[in-house]
Amino acid sequence: MQASRAKIRTHYPPWLRAFAGGILRLLGWKLEGKRPDAAKFLVIAAPHSTNWDLPAMLLCSTALDIPCVFMMKDTVFWGPLGALWRWLGGVAVNRRASSNMVSQVVDIVKERESIFLLIAPEGTRKHVDNVWKLGFYWIATGAEIPLLLSFVDYKHKRVGVGPLVHLTGGLEADFAQIRSFYEPKMGIVPSFRERDAERHRQLSVQSQERQNGNTPNEDET
To answer: How many CB atoms lie within 10 A of CB 1?
Structure first.
């Protein structure tokens, strides 16, 4: 993971924010929400159902002055396209390598004074009954940053962000907070696999016994 090569910003220039907002209005989309007053947070992008989700969220985050860093497969980082993705905030990820990706991301977040990380917790565009992978949760709890709930509503052509969610470390209680936003707004009822929850419980026990090494492997992201 080469985050140092990505363009990590704290603000967008006013002209670029106005341009992104203008594109959304031109396309008939309504922008909702505002940038929260926090130096670091993890942006949840949901639902993830089409390749258009990323462009929609990038326009949204630009218009709201939330310069996000996002992870993508390294296979799309080639030639001029790779330079463009890095300029937009993309980080090339080699999922074929055996490395602790969650731990790496936590370290990147901790070492920055300000960073906004964009993650699609569903991890796939295929229909999986709103089952979310828990990598985003371990990153947020490991780095001790809140979640910013965002959405793309194609039916009503709305895109935006909701409230910050400050995680308690209680998986079920935290997911209840997340559901309370997405269920009435988008009809999404996020859930997780019990095996992932059990993994979380094991890590919680381990974290009490040691200060480091309490994050899962990359295949859980």
So the answer is: 19
Rounded to 5 degrees, φ, ψ at 17 are: -65, -45
Q: What is the mean pLDDT of residues 141-160?
A: 91
Burial of 32 (0-12, 13-18, 19+ CB in 10 A): middle
* Rounded Cα distance, 39 and 8, in Å: 13
pLDDT at 143: 92
Burial of 42 (0-12, 13-18, 19+ CB in 10 A): buried
The model's pTM: 0.77
The answer to whether the CB of 19 falls within 8 A of the CB of 123 is no
Q: In the numeric block, which tokens belong to residue 78?
A: 């080639």
What pLDDT sits at residue 133?
Answer: 83
